Amino acid sequence: MDISEISKNAKRLTVEEQQRLSLQNSRMVSQHKARMLEVEAKKHWDLFYKRNETRFFKDRHWTTREFEELLGENVDSPRTLFEVGCGVGNFIYPLIEEKLNFNVVACDLSPRAVEMVKSNPQYDSGCMKVFQCDITTDEVFGQVDKCTIDIATLIFTLSAVHPEKFVLILKNLHKLLKPGGIVLFRDYGLYDMAQLRFKPGCKIAENFYVRQDGTRSYYFSVEEVEGLFNESGFEVIVNSYIHRRTVNKKENIDVPRIFLILPEMPLEFERPVSTLRFSWKTHFVLEFYFEGSTMKGVII
Ligand SMILES: C[S@@+](CC[C@H](N)C(=O)[O-])C[C@H]1O[C@@H](n2cnc3c(N)ncnc32)[C@H](O)[C@@H]1O
Hints:
A six-stranded mixed sheet has the order 4-3-2-5-6-12. Helices cover 25% and strands 23% of the residues. The model is unreliable at 253-257 and 261-300 (pLDDT under 50). The protein has one domain (2-285): Vaccinia Virus protein VP39 (Rossmann fold), CATH 3.40.50. The chain is α/β, with parallel strands linked by helices. The structure holds S-adenosylmethionine. S-adenosylmethionine is lined by residues 41, 45, 57, 60, 85-87, 90-91, 107-110, 113, 134-136, 155-157, 160-161.
């Protein structure tokens, strides 16, 4: 059972959680190691997929519920969706199953992940183009023409790259989008359970950490995401956290999570690219915890 509440507030830390975060600063990742992690990002993600193959991430069946823009009501011709950091296709294949009339373009840093997407029985080279690419570089423009994308998706991908490259990525997407195009964004939120659990020796920079396997993860605040998108030429319309708790007494599940989400550019608006508008929400998932007094229930 998931119960969600939309709110403007970030999670308020308990004293114990504040102490845990402070302790992380007692031993930071060395500058040399941080540099190597950046240089070897592709290797670490590729090894991640070698180890986990297609088993790690679950298919994302929530996407059309949370991103209504994907449904594209009253849209007759196929739209082009670009999934950045597609992994093994957990976001795109559920969409394809729903037969939403998309041409899908997808890229990932990991060559193995790209091969796994292409090995999926649902892969259709007629309406899909999947390629290896580092989205923090210009490589993408060799594969995708500017102003050709209707919807770009960043689903737990921005957090996987170095914070200094966030704006570069968003500016690349801005160039690829058609006027009136949208970015759908979902990612980890500030003080997610996973952030609080990092031990000393894992913190690279503020809200940026390395996992045991060498992959990295950033935790966003709503204010920061708004600033990043504004700086990259987008306008933000909606801005809120969704606090969620999942209760499964039978399975004794107790894993608080915090995510960010950023959708909703009404497609009927035609605007010059420089004034692209789209709204965004911050998805904040937290189990057995509620901030604020009102609790709106959504039972799934
Ligand atoms: C947490 S996974 C998310 C996968 C997928 N979006 C999903 O929803 O299942 C993050 C993905 O971003 C990819 N990635 C990391 N850095 C990247 C970069 N610079 N360019 C393209 N993809 C990148 C990783 O290889 C990984 O597959």
